Amino acid sequence: MLTVAEALDRAQMMCDAATKAGADAADALYYCNAATSVSMRLGALEDVERSEGQDIALRVFVGQRSASVSTADMDAGELAKLVERCVAMAREAPEDPYAGLAPQDRLMRGPAPDLDLDDGSEADPQALREAALAVEEAARAVAGVTNSEGGTASHSRTRFALATSHGFVGGYGSSGHSLSASVIAGEGASMQRDYGWHSAHYLGDLESAAEIGARAGTRAVARLNPGKAPVGKVPVVIDPRVGSSIVGHLLGAIAGPAIARGTSFLLGKEDSILFDSGIVIRDEPHRPRGLRSRAFDGEGLPTAARDIVTGGKITGWLLDTASAKQLGLEPTGHASRGGGASGVSASNLHLAPGSQSPTALIADIKTGVYLTELIGQGVNPVTGDYSRGASGFVIRDGEIAGPIAEFTVAGNLVDMFAALIPADDLVFRHGTNVPTLRIDGMTVASS
Question: What sequence ranges are listed for the domain Metalloprotease TldD/E central (predicted)?
Fold first, then answer.
């Protein structure tokens, strides 16, 4: 793994070499992740994994033509050969009127803010083994748990560096810690499984093994002996651990590439009232220790906090440079980069809490469902039609009652957004965080 400084040197060298070889512009991106993971099952060591992968991707532009290449070989001589091939490829590529680097006058300037993403730790296999054993033991200690799929603890380190031929150079490193357990309750055909997990940049911010394990075991036992879900149009309440997917569908619909292609169900609805006026969905890229925090985007533009939804409306599209050009707009600092063309992504997202507790939110529901798991990918991004398999609990007379399984929930995302009501139990634990959510009028059917 290169240091950030070493990675920036190589990225800058590739950009310089590309312009010398005839490219009009270029950018180079380095990414490396080194991870150690230890898994325990039934009290015994099951697996130890150590992985380290690094990659440097070069993108060059010759007029309106572009090409991209990537390699894991950091040898300076090999990188120089790669640059020559990439420029030659670009000369033969078709023209793209939207190709190009981000506007130079919009690049991030000056030092990046310290987002406190690295605790300086190194992997300790023995400590990971002890943590994996502890989280599994906590889960297996719950009465009714009969078997285990294991407990896993992991440590990772990441390096990211970006350089462009028109003046941007930036990089950062981060550390990661995670802990999880998955266990089984019941016997035979009536067995049920569930899990608990948590991830953080700092080990000190990681939830305890006892809490994660107990949550996994308790959830598995609670799912035993599921009944049938009520059918028809009923209120649906969504647990925070799966409610973040609703925000994910919104992000896909306001992504610039989807808007430019005309493949979003929100196309033409940018001025419409889509949510209750009290709903706020916020993107916070500078949150200290945030799992998706970043000072700059994948094209070198500065990031900034933004309300994606406020006053019932979306506040605009999420744009990289290419989609912004297609739409006649300006990029918004949401570009994401892999080995080739950029896409868009948000950072730390949350849906602001409402004023009611989860108990109050369901108090008036005579018959409904409480979702704890969603299955499948049954969402049409063009129409917004939504249909997914689910499991959870029935709500009867304002209280969460017995478990239910093997049913589907369906609706249309436009209608779901309009009906969405958040509870007051928002907790910041993941990259996207939401409180308990209620959506009335969804269709529930047996699978």
Answer: 121-224
Residues 6+ apart with CB under 8 A from 53: 32, 33, 34, 72
- Residue pair 26/61 in contact (Cβ under 8 Å)? The answer is yes
CB atoms within 10 A of CB 173: 17
- Residue after which a domain boundary falls, among 221, 238, 256: 221
HSE-CB for 270 with a 13 A CA cutoff:
11
Question: What is the distance between the alpha carbons of residues 215 and 139, in angstroms, rounded to a whole number?
Answer: 7
Q: Which two tokens stand for residue 116?
A: 């406190």
User: What would the two tokens of residue 74 be?
Assistant: 């950091």
| C-alpha span between 89 and 79 (Å, rounded) | 15
Same domain flag for 88 and 107: yes
Same domain, 207 and 231: no
Say whether both 245 and 313 belong to one domain.
yes
- For the entire predicted model, the pTM comes to 0.94
Structure confidence by residue, pLDDT tens digits, 344-389: 999 999 999 999 999 999 999 999 999 999 998 889 999 999 999 9
Tokens of 355: 């004023």
Range of the domain at 300: 226-447
Cβ atoms of 298 and 252 closer than 8 Å: no
d(CA 325, CA 158): 32
Separation between Cα atoms, residue 53 and residue 30, nearest integer Å: 11
Give residues with Cβ within 8 angstroms of 90, minimum separation 6. Answer: 23, 60, 61, 62, 65, 66, 67
- Domain co-membership, 71 together with 175: yes
Q: Within this chain, do residues 260 and 214 fall inside the same structural domain, yes or no?
A: no
* Residue after which a domain boundary falls, among 164, 198, 221: 221
N-terminal to C-terminal alpha carbon distance within the chain? 48
**Per-residue pLDDT at 339 exceeds 60:** no
Q: How many residues does the chain have?
A: 447
Are 381 and 442 found together in one domain? yes
- Which CATH number do you get for residue 199? 3.30.2290.10
Kindly state the tokens that stand for 54: 């690094």
Q: What's the structural domain count of the chain?
A: 2
Structure token digits, residue 305: 């906090």
User: How many other CB atoms are there within 10 angstroms of residue 37's CB atom?
Assistant: 19
Q: Is the same domain home to 201 and 243?
A: no
